[in-house]
């Protein structure tokens, strides 16, 4: 009956080959559908359909006991199945117990809660629901039993304690509630629990018991809490104050101040203490408390303290007290500014102005010393310009306010030693020091200081200050020496040359003054040569040396052909007031006009001719006036091409040019211009004739 191996294998392969392969439906139309549906749209539609209201289940009316028992059986089976599926879902247990409770099956509900507690005894909600059920059904002893078990099992859940004490209090069992609170306090709970206990005792007027609890709590904070909060002390003191135990309240505040000491001072404690004393009309105590706190608490932590102290002084203090607190507050602000940026010299100035107006000399000196210690880190004059005024103000304070001349001298000398004179100096410091020594009637020291300054770091301002000092002292020989040194240092300074010459003129040494002017104009480089020449010319005019003045003008014209020099020369000749002054003046104008024919600046030549015309209008004859009128140029408008910086065309601009009749090169241009004007006039006349021919005929007939 056995089948051969080869044949069996063949039959097996044939059977496998005959297995049917499922056919895939062939898609005839592979074109995309007209309406495309995205996955997002499918999800949205599914969500919308979830929200559609399902019809409510039909109401079932139970008419007899059998139907009720059947309903209970089915419902209990459903709840038990849910619990069996997942025992850890406590909401299923609670729903089951609440359903049994709704049927007044308290024993069954109690059994369900007990079974649930076996599953998860740490679930707070379960205990609460269980106890609430017992309380709702007036099962007080059962509820008390549940609360006892809850606080024994989970003593750190505050809600159990709150509910338990509240239940006992509602039942009027004050002793029982107090006993629960005492059990709770043994666990050293948080702050709110203690305050709840205190408030409980206060509700029943047990002030002594409340005080005892406060004392226990304060002791607890001292022993257990590392950083006790000041607000508990304040609450304790306010409790005593509220019940009119003012001595006890003051004692609590004093204990708090002693406990926190100076290391952990808190502004809120002192504000509360001060307000307590203020309520007791102890104003001197209040002031002492505020000042004690302000002197010891860091300024950045004392904003509220400042504010309350200010309000107190405004209410009960005098004007001096109010000013003191305002000054103190502003000092704190300035301290913060200079601490943030020690090189903020403007803040130092404001701070010093404040302390100078209100504090003693030692405090002012201390602030000045702190300020000047902040030397600019870079040795550049622009960084020192504000800093140096700290030294100046310091010296002036010592001299004018403190009346300490010795300290003033030390301040000036220290400042002079500090300045790096090889790189830069401040002439103001040297001059102020010298003036101070003169006020002290110590002239040799003043001269020594100024001499040292000129030797170390000569400056124009130093020379001028020193010379002015010697002039005031009428030491003219010293002034001459100083001017000589000054001019050796700065030979290009025209003002110095002029002042030196003026000094000699005042002293009556005219030859010496003239020699100084000659030396001055002979210098190869001058900063304001025109001022120097004008001063020299004015000097010779004052001396009525007209010939020398003319020579000066000629020498000046050899150096420059500026139109103002020519005009000034002509006006000098006119003002000389001698015979032939008009002819000499006209001659100078003639020379100037010839000299300026080749001048590129035509406006200067026009200025000269206008000055000449004004002269002729006042002093000339008709012939000379007609001649100058012929010399006046014609002003024409021209255009020229502009080029930008990159060489591209920037358009055209209009400008005015002058054409002088004397210039022979411009004669063809003038002739062409005249012909163009004549042609333009003829064109205008012909156009007018074409516009109104009848009018021309009528005019010809008439």
Layout: helices, strands, pairs:
Layout lengths: L4 H13 L21 H12 L14 H21 L4 H13 L3 H14 L4 H13 L3 H14 L4 H13 L3 H12 L5 H13 L3 H17 L6 H13 L3 H15 L6 H13 L3 H14 L6 H14 L2 H22 L4 H14 L2 H12 L8 H4 L2 H15 L3 H14 L8 H13 L3 H14 L3 H13 L3 H14 L4 H13 L3 H12 L7 H14 L3 H14 L3 H13 L5 H15 L6 H18 L2 H10 L2 E10 L5 E11 L7 H25 L1 H9 L1
What does this protein look like?
- The chain has helices at residues 5-17, 39-50, 65-85, 90-102, 106-119, 124-136, 140-153, 158-170, 174-185, 191-203, 207-223, 230-242, 246-260, 267-279, 283-296, 303-316, 319-340, 345-358, 361-372, 381-384, 387-401, 405-418, 427-439, 443-456, 460-472, 476-489, 494-506, 510-521, 529-542, 546-559, 563-575, 581-595, 602-619, 622-631, 667-691, 693-701; strands at residues 634-643, 649-659.
- The chain is built from 36 helices and two strands.
- The model is unreliable at 1-18 and 693-702 (pLDDT under 50).
- Strand 1 and strand 2 form a beta hairpin.
- With 702 residues, the protein is mainly α.
- A two-stranded antiparallel ribbon has the order 1-2.
- Residues 91-376, 403-554 form the Pre-mRNA-splicing factor Syf1/CRNKL1-like C-terminal HAT-repeats domain.
- It is found in: Nucleus speckle.
Number of E-state strands: 2
Percent strand equals under 5%
Structural class: mainly alpha
What's the number of helices?
Answer: 36
The pLDDT mean sits at 76
Radius of gyration: 56 Å
End-to-end separation: 163 Å
Query: Unreliable segments (pLDDT under 50, ≥5 consecutive)?
Result: 1-18, 693-702
Helix content bin: over 70%
Principal-axis shape equals: elongated
The neighbouring-strand order within the major sheet is 1-2
Q: How many strands, what sense, and barrel or not for the largest sheet?
A: 2 strands, antiparallel
Function: Involved in pre-mRNA splicing process. As a component of the minor spliceosome, involved in the splicing of U12-type introns in pre-mRNAs.
Biased composition (Acidic residues): 687-702
Main location: nucleus
Protein name: Crooked neck-like protein 1
């Amino acid at each position: 009956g056995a089948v051969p191996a080869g044949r069996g294998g063949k039959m097996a392969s044939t059977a496998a080959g005959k297995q049917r392969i499922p056919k895939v439906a062939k898609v005839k139309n592979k074109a995309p559908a007209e309406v495309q549906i995205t996955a997002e749209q499918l999800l949205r539609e599914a969500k919308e359909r979830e929200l559609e209201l399902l019809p409510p289940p039909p109401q079932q009316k139970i008419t007899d006991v059998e139907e009720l028992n059947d309903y209970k059986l089915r419902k209990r089976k459903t709840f038990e199945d849910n619990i069996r599926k997942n025992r850890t879902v406590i909401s299923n247990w609670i729903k089951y117990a609440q359903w049994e409770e709704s049927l007044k099956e308290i024993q069954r509900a109690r059994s369900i809660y007990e079974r649930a507690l076996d599953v998860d005894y740490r679930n707070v909600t379960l205990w609460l629901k269980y106890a609430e059920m017992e309380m709702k059904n007036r099962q007080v002893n059962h509820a008390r039993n549940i609360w006892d078990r809850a606080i024994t099992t989970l003593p750190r859940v505050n809600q159990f304690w709150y509910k338990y004490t509240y239940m006992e209090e509602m039942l009027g069992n004050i002793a029982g509630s107090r006993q629960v609170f005492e059990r709770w306090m043994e666990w050293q709970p948080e702050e709110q629990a203690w305050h709840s206990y205190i408030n409980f005792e206060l509700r029943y007027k047990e002030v002594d018991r409340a005080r005892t609890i406060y004392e226990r709590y304060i002791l607890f904070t001292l022993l257990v809490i590392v950083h006790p909060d000041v607000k508990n002390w304040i609450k304790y003191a306010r409790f005593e104050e509220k019940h009119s135990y003012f001595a006890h309240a003051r004692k609590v505040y004093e204990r708090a101040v002693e406990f926190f000491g100076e290391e952990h001072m808190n502004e809120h404690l002192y504000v509360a203490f001060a307000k307590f004393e203020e309520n007791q009309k102890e104003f001197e105590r209040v002031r002492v408390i505020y000042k004690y706190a302000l002197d010891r608490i860091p300024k950045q932590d004392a904003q509220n303290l400042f504010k309350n102290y200010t309000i107190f002084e405004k209410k009960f203090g005098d004007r001096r007290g109010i000013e003191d607190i305002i000054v103190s507050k502003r000092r704190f602000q300035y301290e913060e500014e200079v601490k943030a940026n020690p090189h903020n010299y403007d803040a130092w100035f404001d701070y010093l102005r404040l302390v100078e107006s209100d504090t003693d000399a030692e405090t002012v000196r201390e602030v000045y010393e702190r300020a000047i210690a902040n030397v600019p880190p870079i040795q550049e004059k622009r960084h020192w310009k504000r800093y140096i005024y700290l030294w100046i103000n310091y010296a002036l304070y010592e001299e004018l306010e403190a009346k300490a001349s010795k300290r003033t001298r030390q301040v000036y000398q220290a400042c002079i030693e500090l300045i790096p004179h090889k790189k830069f100096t401040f002439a103001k410091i040297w001059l102020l020091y010298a003036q101070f020594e003169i006020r002290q009637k110590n002239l040799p020291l003043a001269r020594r200081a100024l001499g040292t300054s000129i030797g170390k770091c000569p400056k124009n301002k130093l020379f001028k200050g020193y010379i002015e000092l010697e002039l005031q002292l009428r030491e003219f020989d010293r002034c001459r020496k100083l001017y000589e040194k000054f001019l050796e240092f700065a030979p290009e300074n025209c003002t110095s040359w002029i002042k030196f010459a003026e000094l000699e003129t005042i002293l009556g040494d005219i030859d010496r003054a003239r020699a100084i002017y000659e030396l001055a104009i002979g210098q190869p480089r001058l900063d304001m040569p025109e001022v120097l020449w004008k001063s020299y010319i004015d000097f010779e005019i004052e001396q009525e040396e007209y010939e020398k003045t003319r020579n000066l003008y000629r020498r000046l014209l050899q150096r420059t052909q500026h139109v103002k020099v020519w005009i000034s020369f002509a006006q000098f000749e006119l003002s000389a007031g001698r015979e032939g002054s008009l002819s000499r003046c006209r001659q100078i104008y003639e020379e100037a006009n010839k000299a300026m024919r080749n001048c590129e600046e035509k406006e200067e030549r026009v200025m000269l001719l206008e000055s000449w015309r004004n002269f002729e209008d006042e002093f000339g004859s008709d012939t000379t006036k007609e001649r100058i009128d012929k010399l006046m140029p014609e002003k024409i408008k021209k255009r020229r091409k502009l080029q930008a910086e990159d060489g591209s065309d920037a358009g055209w601009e209009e400008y005015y040019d002058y054409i002088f009749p004397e210039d022979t090169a411009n004669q063809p241009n003038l002739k062409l211009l005249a012909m163009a004007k004549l042609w333009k006039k003829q064109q205008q006349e012909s156009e007018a004739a074409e516009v109104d021919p009848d009018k021309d005929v009528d005019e010809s007939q008439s």
